[in-house]
Amino acid sequence: MGAIPAKALFLALVFTSCASAAAQAQTTGLEDLVGARGGQAEGELQRRGYGFIRNEKSDDRSYTYWWSDERRQCVTIATMDGRYASIQPTLPPDCRKPGNLRPNPNYAQRPATRPGADYPVDPGYGRPGYDDGPMVDGRNVELGLVCFGDGSKDGVASGTTWTWNRDRKRYEYGTYTASKTEVFDASLMIQTWAGGGRIRLPRALVPPIHSGGQDGWWDLYDLFVSPDAIRATYRLNGLNKPKVTIDRRSGRVTVQGLSDYGFRGTCDTIGHQQRKF
């Protein structure tokens, strides 16, 4: 078989890239439900093929995670004042699914239609001035981030095994305990304002012995914000004070504490801006 012409190879790569991008750009089919009353719209979510997975609570809003088997899509729904404030696609691990799943490229994109007056949207919802964004202790949040990636921490492994007893010249059955590094999929949230900020940690990054933290949020200290980077620390306990570093050009975030405690991922900004954030 002859070599593939360079032009044909180039076109094949372009087609593959575009197909991948199209799959990632797949809509959730729930866009029209933003602004609907949360309790009333749950039946509509199920009608469209989404099943409830779990929920989380923050200071001013709650987050629910829904999964569509047909679409292979996880979504996060933020509810505030009883209405859906936002519906965003997110990664499968947030819905407790394998991280290697991708949206179904063969899913037929059917237009979403609201079934009449059962799910009324507030006419003013989403208009300028309707919601000025979250506030923390009277301070407007200037930057809100949701970050997805991989976390790691020290852990302990235990089990049973056979060991050689040198004195008795025989194998003996017993238990063992050893240290290990646990790696897991996780997501975290970051909010900053003039002179301060906070970070919301996944439970897996909160050790049994810790200090501080309120409703899952930890205050950020030594916050440094420039056009290209954000750096800060938070106090996990007396010894461990992890450092947070964010590249504002790429959206990459790293959290590094003592030993194997850490997180690496990519952040999405809340809102619409020209640059990453």
Order of helices and strands: HHEEEEEEEEEEEEEE
With strands numbered from the N-terminus, the spatial order across the biggest sheet is 7-8-9-10-11-12-13-14
- Amount of beta strand: 35-45%
- Average per-residue pLDDT, rounded, comes to 76
Count every helix, treating DSSP H or I runs of 4 or more residues as helices: 2
Distance between the termini: 49 Å
Helix content: 10-25%
Q: How big is the Rg?
A: 23 Å
Biggest sheet layout? 8 strands, antiparallel, barrel
Overall shape: it is globular
Domain count, please report it: 2
Question: Structural class of the helix and strand makeup?
Answer: mainly beta
Q: Uncertain spans, ≥5 residues at pLDDT below 50?
A: 6-25, 111-119, 122-131
Total count of strands: 14
Question: Could you characterize what this model shows?
Answer:
With 277 residues, the chain is mostly beta strands. The protein folds into 2 domains: 29-109 and 120-127, no CATH class; 143-269, no CATH class. The chain contains 2 helices and 14 strands, in the order ααββββββββββββββ. β2 and β3 form a beta hairpin. The protein is globular and about 75 Å long. It starts with 5 loop residues before the first helix and ends in an 8-residue tail after the last strand. Residues 6-25, 111-119 and 122-131 have low confidence and may be disordered.
